[in-house]
Amino acid sequence: MRKRIHHWLQAKRFFKSLAIFATLGVVYLSLKPPSPDAQPWEFLWFRGDLVLHFSCYFGLTFLYFFAFYMLTHPLMKALFASFFLGSSMEFLQLIPVFQRFFDWQDLLANTLGLVISSIVIKGFFNYSDSE
């Protein structure tokens, strides 16, 4: 089964294209002005947007890992790309033109998403280091 997954992950053009489109989507959603009638929501005891930040960067780290799979140190490159994108988007929100606001909790949720994603990737793909 793992050999099939390894073979499938070698389709680097598919994952690179998917990662580019996902990145463009994240950039758009991070910088577009908020809707004036948007209602805040919660998931359990977390703010809803924090759940979205966590799941978005969890998924982006996976996509970047798959896109960089054939390169050396794909996990480190995926972590760097995810962290760079997340922190760049948060700091760009300091510019008043975007009508957004910087939030440390969003940055923390982004970082937590990519850290948990890297733990899952290491747990699932640890065999590739030994082969």
What does this structure look like?
This protein has 131 residues and is mainly α. It has a domain of 73 residues. 70% of the residues lie in helices and 3% in strands. The chain contains six helices and two strands. The protein has a two-stranded antiparallel ribbon with strand order 1-2. A hairpin with a 2-residue loop joins strand 1 and strand 2. Helix 2 runs antiparallel to helix 3, helix 3 packs across helix 5 and helix 4 packs antiparallel against helix 5. It is elongated, with a radius of gyration of 16 Å. The model has no long low-confidence stretch (mean pLDDT 85).
Spatially, the strands of the biggest sheet line up as 1-2
> What Rg is obtained from the alpha carbons, in whole angstroms?
16 Å
Low-confidence parts = none
Secondary-structure-derived class: mainly alpha
Reading the helices and strands in chain order gives HHEEHHHH
Dominant shape = elongated
User: Could you give the distance between the termini?
Assistant: 14 Å
Describe this structure in a few short sentences.
The chain is built from six helices and two strands. The protein has 131 residues and is mainly alpha-helical.
Main attributes of the structure:
131 residues, single chain, mainly alpha
Question: Which secondary structure elements does this structure contain, and how are they paired or packed?
Answer:
Blueprint: H1 2-9, H2 12-31, E1 42-43, E2 46-47, H3 48-67, H4 74-92, H5 104-124, H6 127-130
Antiparallel strand pairs: 1-2
Helix pairs in contact: 2-3, 2-4, 3-4, 3-5, 4-5
